[in-house]
Structure prediction request, 114 residues.
Amino acid sequence: TATALSTECGMEFYVLEVCIALVFTFPVMMVPVYEIVERNLACSESFEKNVSPANYSYVFRVIRACIVCVVAFIAVSVPGFADFISLIGSLCCGVLAFVVPSLCHLSLFGSELG
Prediction:
């Protein structure tokens, strides 16, 4: 059973690595969301009147923390959310891997191809 023990330890280490990777990639994946929310909020008149420019960074940090909490709440409370996200991810990754590069190539070099 030495191999079973080493396999179990290896699997636990792999799960730990995946969890660490998710923790560090989540903020990077959320950057577009943060930018959209912050840009729309900074353009609003009520935000400009009520928040001084010196406090913008603090307000945006609180907003980012709230966004993370909302996303975490949705992920935990919606049943079957992981399956839905897996489906969306698999569909989008295929498009991003095969269709988008071809379209970029056609738009850049389309006149030379044909």
Q: What stands out?
A: Helices lie at 2-29, 31-43, 45-50, 56-77, 81-113. The mean pLDDT is 85. The chain has five helices and no strands. The first helix runs from residue 2 to 29.
